[in-house]
Design goal:
The complex is a heterotrimer of chains A (304), B (275) and C (278). By secondary structure, chain B is mainly alpha-helical. Chain B has one domain (3-274). Chain B has helices at 3-7, 11-14, 25-38, 41-46, 49-66, 79-109, 113-118, 124-152, 164-183, 189-205, 217-225, 227-240, 247-274, and strands at 68-70, 76-78. Chain C has helices at 2-36, 38-68, 78-98, 101-109, 112-118, 123-151, 162-184, 191-206, 218-226, 228-241, 247-276. The chains are: A alpha/beta (304), B mainly alpha (275), C mainly alpha (278). At the A-C interface, helix 2 and helix 3 of A face helix 1 and helix 5 of C.
């Protein structure tokens, strides 16, 4: 569905995307995981055929976006990072005018709009003003709008950023349904839990380049241990303690506020620390996540 | 009331407007002044040119077609001297209305500025007076500039013209306080259009560009009931030197407007944000 | 691979309609938005001609005619002289509303243009759609204005209705350039307010609207020559009362306005394409 090879986007001298390659197959849910400014949104815009690439090849549904922009966009659904719903129109009207942009007949758009309001759980809000909706509702409306043309690929740029936790779960549920129905999803996120929930496969991006590629579980297996022990000794003591526990676990990461000890068995590492006469203020054993993968690959945390 | 009651530190009892007014309108003005400084000063300065453009166009161009005009008091004056005071009054009105409607509406509905101000020790009257005073300060500067231009062009026909400056401030105060009162009742930008629907005909019909005598009697009465006509006649009387006790009626009209406007605005702000 | 080929073929077929009609879909969107402030549109479209024609064509005319006699301005009554200018100014007013804030809105404040562009609509089609929708509103406004001019008896010539199109061309010519300029603004720090004050207002006042350009001192007359409003007003006057001017001058009015329209339109399309392709 999507084939990108050595994709480059430069703004003057700055390379926002610097030689990225990936492929997305039909029905797959593919993620771009990385911190803000990693080049995810730029990549999305190029795939969305609204930004011309500087170099490399890109093929979407077998077409080149430089030559077939409108054709490609007619088969895409796009959920941008910031909602750009028309606040001068009402909820249902937003779907109606958007459907017309795909050249769909009015009657068909109207029918589809009602189905999608149902899907987005916004039927009761059909006549509301857009500004009267909550953040989560606006997001759902934007997703509904992106589906108006029954797209082959849905592009989601940070779909749940700025949405409260409860609304996030509703959004995930809706997106999961789409995935089950076989819609190809391409999404960017800087939330690892989101990537783990929604992506079959993902690439970790940082500073315009791909650091790793694979299924979430596979990446965790490859770049991290099974469990992580997080201990805090207070911000002044962490660095000092780190010296004394060096060599424990498979690997140790010292962060400003805590120490992470990677191991197959977190509990036993904790026992070793206490046996060494150290008393952490708090301790937590958890499973490894994509956050740990990112930390391992870049030496930085995802959300800074 | 007993002695004990009197010494209790209760500002509400000490001042009749205690809940409404903290005597600190200055701080509201100061904020407004800072905000003005950080916006594009060219926009602020440009407000001064609008009446000048009108004066040049109408005075030079139409003046050539019209010659002299007979004022309400029977005096023959050049057309430019006839419209200049009217433009001054109109500029005062427009400035005051802009500041007290669009600006206030934005601050109230979008920036939620007043909500923040009223959660401090400021009262609604502080806010109203502070905002209006700043608008007046700005209006006063424009008016002074315009008066200078009038003087250079020889359109001030009498020393009474000096009093036109306080007259303009009075007019601006009147429109600002009523404008703010009206705005506090509006809910959408669409309703703001209605303000324009009233302003435009008032601007064109209030003896601004030609004397009231061209209208049939009933329309004359209608226009005389509207505020701008009083402002135009007041300023025109002063700049052309046709001064008599009748001008005091115009002054009274504006004093009443100010009072009504302030009472409504204060009450409304209290109802919106404090009750 | 064959499924991809069919997908591409499907997309190409489906997009043919959009390539052809996309501009009209954008116009349709604009009409829907205009409906939300239809009340204002209707009230101004009816109220403005009544108010201005009465204030200028009747009220002010009393002074002019009293001074110079009934047929004193360019050989006709002041009402007949000023009415076509008011008509052309009305078109400019519509242009200065519809080609400014909706553009700012679509690119920045409520970036719906990006949404359109994420659908198969091309940037140029967005600009076309806006021009189409504004043309429609302007035509209605000018049509109503002209009807009131007839009611006031301000149109001596039977060919007067052509002034509606002259006004339309005036509004579009000026508006297209204004739209292109607005499209270049990434931040509104008062530029539009400045345009209103230092371009539109002086243009309205010094374009031979309320008095013949020749009345102004020579050093101010150049404003008229470059002003689209002057060209449009003079052209309207030819139609409404047969104002005398050489035929080449009338042709120049049309050419000048058409050139502005072409220039502004092309420029706006280019700016839109640049802004939407980030």
């Amino acid at each position: 569905m999507i084939v990108a090879e050595n994709l480059v986007k430069k703004y003057k001298e700055f390379a926002a995307v610097d030689g990225v390659s990936f492929e997305v197959a039909a029905g797959e849910s593919f993620g771009l995981l990385g911190p803000n400014g990693a080049g995810k949104s730029t990549t999305m815009r190029m795939v969305g055929a609204v930004s011309t690439r500087t170099a490399g090849t890109l093929s979407i549904l077998g077409m080149d976006p430089d030559r077939r922009g409108p054709e490609i966009r007619s088969r895409l659904g796009v959920v941008p990072q910031a909602d750009n719903l028309d606040t001068e129109l009402r909820v249902r009207e937003n779907l109606l005018v958007y459907g017309r942009y795909f050249g769909l007949p009015r009657a068909q758009v109207a029918r589809r709009a009602d189905e999608l309001l149902e899907f987005a759980q916004l039927t009761e809000k059909a006549k509301s003003k857009v500004d009267a909706l909550s953040g989560g509702m606006k997001r759902r409306l934007t997703i509904a709008r992106a589906l108006i043309n029954d797209p082959s690929i849905l592009l989601l740029d940070e779909p749940t950023t700025g949405v409260d936790p409860q609304a996030r779960h509703i959004l995930w549920d809706r997106l999961f349904r789409l995935k089950e129905q076989g819609t190809t999803l391409l999404l960017t996120t800087h939330y690892m839990d989101e990537a783990e929930q929604l992506c079959d496969r993902l690439v970790v991006v940082d500073k315009g380049v791909i650091m790793a590629e694979g299924a979430p579980a596979e990446l965790i297996r490859r770049y991290s241990s099974r469990e992580v022990l997080e201990v805090r000794f207070g911000s002044d003591l962490n660095a000092e303690v780190a010296g004394r526990i060096a060599g424990m676990g498979d690997r140790i990461e010292v962060l400003p506020d805590r120490i992470l000890i990677y191991s197959e068995n977190g509990e036993s590492e904790l026992v070793r620390i206490i046996d060494a006469g150290l008393r952490p203020i708090t301790s937590l054993v958890r499973r490894s996540s994509l956050e740990d993968v990112f930390l391992r690959l870049t030496g930085r945390t995802l959300i800074e | 009331m007993t002695e004990v009651d009197d010494v209790r530190p209760a500002p509400a009892a000490a001042r009749p407007f205690g809940a409404l007014y903290a005597g600190n309108a200055r701080s509201v003005m100061a904020r407004g002044w800072r905000a003005t400084r950080s916006t594009n000063w060219l926009v602020v300065v440009s407000g001064f040119f609008e009446p000048i453009f009108y004066l040049l166009s109408m005075g030079l161009g139409l003046g050539a077609l019209i010659g002299t005009v007979t004022t309400a008091s029977g005096q023959q004056v050049p057309y430019a001297a006839f419209i200049a005071p009217a433009l001054l009054a109109v500029a005062a009105m427009n400035g005051a209305i802009y500041d007290s409607t669009w600006n206030v509406f934005f601050k109230m509905q979008f920036a939620r500025l007043y909500e923040g101000m009223l959660s401090t020790s400021l009262g609604p009257l502080d806010v109203a007076l502070g905002e209006i005073s700043l608008a007046l300060l700005r209006g006063g500067l424009y008016a002074t500039g315009f008066m200078v231009v009038m003087q250079v062009l020889g359109l001030n026909l009498s020393w009474w013209a000096l009093l036109a400056l306080p007259a303009v401030l009075l007019i601006a105060f009147g429109f600002a306080s009523v404008g703010m009162a009206v705005t506090s009742y509006l809910k959408t930008f669409q309703q703001m259009d209605w303000v324009n629907f009233v302003m435009l005909p008032m601007f064109l019909f209030s003896a601004t560009f030609y004397p009231l005598s061209v209208y049939p009697q009933p329309i004359q009465y209608l226009i005389q009931a509207l505020p701008l006509w009083h402002g135009v006649e007041l300023v025109r009387g002063l700049t052309t030197g046709q001064v008599d006790a009748g001008l005091l009626w115009h002054v009274l009209y504006y004093l009443a407007m100010i009072l009504v406007g302030l009472v409504l605005t204060t009450g409304r702000l209290r109802a919106l944000f404090l009750d | 691979m064959s499924t991809l080929e069919t997908a591409a073929d499907d997309a190409i077929r489906a997009t043919r309609r959009v390539r052809r009609w996309g501009s009209w879909y954008v116009a349709e969107h604009r009409f829907r938005v205009m409906r939300s402030y239809a009340q204002t549109v209707v009230v101004t479209a009816i109220g403005n001609p009544v108010i201005y024609l009465y204030a200028m064509g009747v009220g002010l005319a009393t002074l002019v005619d009293a001074n110079l006699g009934p047929d004193a301005v360019a050989g006709v009554s002041y009402l007949a002289f000023v009415a076509p200018a008011l008509l052309a100014s009305a078109a400019i007013t519509v242009a200065s509303e519809e080609f400014t804030y909706p553009i700012m809105l679509g690119f920045k404040w409520n970036p719906v243009f990006y949404g359109m562009n994420a659908a198969p609509i091309a940037p140029g089609q967005i600009i076309n759609g806006i021009v189409i929708s504004v043309t429609a509103r302007m035509l209605v406004t000018c049509g109503i204005y002209y009807a009131f001019m007839l009611v006031f008896g301000a149109v001596p010539s039977p060919a007067g209705f052509l002034a509606v199109f002259a006004a339309l061309l005036t509004g579009l010519g000026f508006g297209a350039v204004l739209m292109a300029y607005t499209a270049t603004l990434t931040e509104d720090t008062g530029q539009l307010a400045m345009v209103m004050r230092f371009v539109i207002l002086p243009m309205t006042l010094f374009s031979g609207t309320f008095f013949p350009l020749s009345v102004l001192p020579g050093w101010l007359q150049w404003i008229g020559w470059i002003s689209p409003l002057w060209h449009g007003t003079q052209l309207s006057r030819v139609f409404t009362y047969g104002a005398e001017e050489p035929i080449w001058l009338s042709a120049l009015h049309v050419l000048y306005l058409a050139a502005l329209l072409g220039l502004g339109w092309t420029w706006a399309r280019r700016v839109a394409a640049g802004r939407l392709n980030k």
